[in-house]
């Protein structure tokens, strides 16, 4: 039984980690080694003499080449990473701010039809993006928001609101009302009590919510590809657009770029690891 | 209790309340309810992506959707995808959670590594898996070849590529199931197991009578969350096979193909409306279930 347990753990570890390890190895290869018929997994200082060798010459070329513009694209990887950062950060700030206010309203005030509104908010998360993409596309054409940072950031803000409201409501509900009441008795206004008492108490919740909003905006592909094919293209849409490239896929650069792209996510995942369960279940399940 | 009521009934409370929740609700209505209604209107027209021509065509689009073999195929494939991918994720995730539930050294580190795939971008990772599974130079086939096994064309073989995408989805989302199953397993009170030990119940019996029923509600929640997500499967298919591959086309990629490649907005809108009815059905089950869970926890 013990052996089976460890077998499962090791298999799970390898299955999760090996593709990422392979990505790391690919990123320090020359292109020829990424599309070699032979298994090349041992980094070496110089190119092996034997072509059937399992080692390959390690190089940092791919990281340098992230600045090159590939055939079929208009900008380098860094440009698209910057787009991802701008859109991700803008939309995260907006959805956390709006979501916190909205959750506070539901948590502390009597809102007529509260339950129905909350379920309406949650239900928007189940909307298939492609069911609304055509009307959104037409709206954006009319408002001239297609291919802009603002347009995509706005869309991700709305998309993440359901998550932000539900997560923040869970966190705010845990803060005793007595804290604010004491502050109001001490002469704070309601707004003052919210800023000085509630927000500092909710900082963990705000950080966790921000991480989940950022990750979902960071990873989004459907809207990024359909609405922003010309301007403000994010990394997922940029990478996908390299398919069918006449020069062939620049695999080492893709591996290097993907590695840079997923590193912040891995760091954030580790940081919020004790709140992951809450994040993926909209705050309905707590650890 | 009385103070709570006082705060809740703060003078002008309802104005404050609406100004707090109002902006969020308005945005959600503008970006969800309005497009939905617009979409329904479009589904009765022959509107195309290029040009302004838009005529009322009655239910023609809906008749086409229901008689379209592509739609029937995509529907069947999506259902198969949801059942197989989510089913495999549930079983593997549950097994992983069972192995991880007891304390051991480095448990936190192991968990962090195991959980990472579900946080990554499906589009980017899907593209990278296309390199890993490449028939000629992918690492999987290199390993298979070096130990003398056949090297299947994972992503180009008609009968195989659908299953390759299922495998990538399982890679991404098994951690999700494991995370939720682990929470369920950790919450089982130890005295239940102690009682079973006193009764000398067999391992199988303990599993069927204690472990499974005690984790079932959370697993159900996980399955519903995953199923509604898998129903929208788009990114992985786009990254590995593209939108117009007959062997892997899902509802979402068919919709994309119809609207953005064929330019048929009216027909695409009708597709979307039909898909939406399906999603609403699933989401209703989900919200009912959440409600049921909450009530069960309160009592």
Structure description:
The complex is a heterodimer of chains A (287) and B (299). By secondary structure, chain A is mostly helical. Helices cover 67% and strands 2% of the residues of chain A. Chain A has helices at residues 2-27, 31-34, 61-64, 77-108, 114-123, 129-143, 149-173, 177-185, 190-201, 203-219, 222-227, 235-241, 251-271, 276-280; strands at residues 42-44, 55-57. Chain A has a two-stranded parallel ribbon. In chain A, helix 1 crosses helix 13 (251-271) and helix 5 (114-123) crosses helix 7. The longest helix of chain A is centred in the N-terminal third of the chain and has 32 residues, at 77-108. Chain A starts with a helix and ends in a 7-residue tail after the last helix. Chain B is an all-alpha fold and 299 residues long. Chain B contains 13 helices and no strands. Chain B has helices at residues 2-8, 13-42, 60-67, 69-100, 107-115, 122-132, 139-146, 161-186, 190-198, 203-230, 235-240, 251-261, 265-298. In chain B, helix 8 packs across helix 10 and helix 10 runs antiparallel to helix 13. Chain B is globular, with a radius of gyration of 24 Å. Chain B starts with a helix and ends with a helix. Classes of the chains: A mainly alpha (287), B mainly alpha (299). At the A-B interface, helix 1, helix 4, helix 5, helix 6 and helix 7 of A face helix 1, helix 2, helix 4, helix 5 and helix 6 of B.
């Amino acid at each position: 039984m013990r052996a089976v347990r460890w077998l499962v753990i090791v298999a799970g570890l390898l299955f999760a980690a090996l593709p990422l390890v392979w990505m790391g190895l690919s990123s320090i290869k020359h292109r020829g080694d990424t599309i070699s018929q032979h298994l090349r997994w041992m980094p070496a200082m110089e190119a092996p003499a034997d072509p059937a060798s399992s080692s390959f010459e390690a190089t940092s070329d791919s990281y340098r080449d992230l600045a090159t513009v590939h055939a079929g694209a208009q900008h380098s990887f860094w440009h698209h990473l910057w787009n991802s950062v701008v859109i991700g950060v803008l939309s995260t700030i907006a959805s956390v701010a709006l979501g916190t206010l909205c959750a506070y309203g539901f948590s502390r005030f009597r809102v007529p039809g509260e339950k129905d509104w909350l379920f309406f908010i949650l239900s928007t998360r189940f909307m298939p993006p492609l069911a609304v993409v055509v009307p959104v596309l037409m709206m954006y054409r009319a408002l001239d928001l297609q291919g802009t940072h603002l347009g995509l950031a706005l869309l991700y803000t709305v998309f993440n609101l359901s998550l932000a409201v539900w997560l923040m409501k869970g966190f705010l509900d845990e803060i005793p009302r007595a804290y604010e009441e004491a502050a109001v008795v001490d002469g704070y206004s309601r707004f003052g009590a919210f800023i000085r008492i509630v927000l500092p108490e909710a900082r963990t919740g705000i950080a966790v919510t921000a991480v989940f909003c950022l990750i979902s905006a960071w990873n989004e592909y459907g809207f990024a590809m359909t609405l922003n094919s010309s301007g403000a293209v994010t990394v997922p849409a940029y990478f996908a657009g390299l398919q069918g490239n006449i020069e062939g896929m620049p695999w080492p650069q893709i591996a290097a770029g993907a590695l840079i792209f997923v590193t912040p996510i891995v760091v954030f995942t580790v940081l919020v690891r004790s709140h992951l369960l809450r994040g993926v279940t909209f705050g309905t399940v707590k650890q | 209790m009385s103070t709570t009521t006082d705060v809740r009934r703060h003078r002008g409370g309802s104005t404050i309340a609406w100004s707090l929740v109002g902006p969020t609700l308005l945005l959600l209505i503008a970006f969800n309810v309005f497009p939905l209604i617009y979409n329904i209107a479009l589904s009765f027209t022959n509107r195309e992506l290029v040009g302004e021509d838009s005529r009322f065509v009655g239910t023609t689009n809906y008749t086409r959707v229901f008689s379209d073999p592509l739609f029937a195929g995509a529907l069947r494939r999506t259902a198969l995808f949801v059942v197989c991918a989510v089913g495999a994720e549930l079983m593997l995730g549950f097994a992983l959670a069972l192995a991880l539930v007891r304390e051991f050294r480095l448990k936190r580190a192991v968990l962090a590594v195991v959980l990472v795939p579900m946080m990554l971008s499906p589009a980017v990772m899907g593209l990278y898996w296309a390199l890993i599974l490449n028939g000629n130079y992918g690492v999987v086939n290199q390993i298979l070849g070096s130990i003398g096994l056949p090297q299947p064309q994972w992503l180009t073989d008609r009968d195989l590529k659908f299953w390759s995408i299922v495998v990538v989805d399982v890679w991404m989302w098994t951690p999700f199931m494991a995370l939720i199953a682990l929470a369920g397993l950790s919450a089982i009170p130890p005295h239940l197991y102690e009682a079973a030990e006193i009764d000398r119940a067999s391992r199988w019996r303990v599993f069927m009578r204690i472990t499974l029923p005690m984790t079932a509600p959370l697993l159900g929640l996980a399955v519903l969350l995953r199923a509604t997500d898998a129903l929208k499967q788009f990114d992985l298919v786009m990254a590995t096979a593209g939108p117009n591959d007959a062997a892997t086309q899902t509802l979402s990629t068919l919709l994309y193909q119809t609207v953005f490649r064929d330019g048929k907005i009216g027909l695409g809108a009708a597709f979307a409306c039909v898909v939406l009815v399906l999603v609403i059905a699933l989401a209703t089950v989900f919200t009912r279930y959440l409600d049921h869970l909450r009530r069960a926890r309160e009592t």
